[in-house]
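note to self — DONT lose this again. spent like an hour looking for the file last time. sequence + predicted structure for the chain T wanted, 180 res
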Amino acid sequence: MAGVPASETPPVVLPAVAREVEEFVSTGGWNQPVQLFALVSTAALLAQQPELAGQLDPAASPLTPIAQDSLPDSELDRALAGIEWPDVVSGCAIAQEIVVLPPAAEEQLSSENLDDEAAKRFAAEHPDRKEARLVAAVLRDGTTACVLRLRGTTEAPEEVVEHPELAPNLTSALLATLRP
């Protein structure tokens, strides 16, 4: 990508950090608000705060997620549009609970041209919906990673899916918070 700095972070690190964020958030259970994390260099963090040396290992994880204050109650796209990270932040991640619909329901939803509230009601009331937690993570160089945990039921256990393109609109919005 032209104009995007090369990453000093190995490409396998970001998916691991996205899983780490999802596991951290999952310790709080379900029905949580959206959570935002700054991703900073572990080595740089230890240089600024050497007292963390017993808790962080830059060899094990070159990036450390740092939980941020709660996002405003406005729509997520508006909240993200107002965020600009300082240069010390290598990337960011967000965890949010979503509803996943089967493809036929997605097609029906898109063909009906519903407003946001009606679309949310449709998804929330659909009999084949699945609740999930999505973590999207990005680095300044454009690297993305996504982890989706489908909430388990009595009929189906929890399932975790990973793919960098699970949420392209969300990762694009996160990348926009990192660019000048």
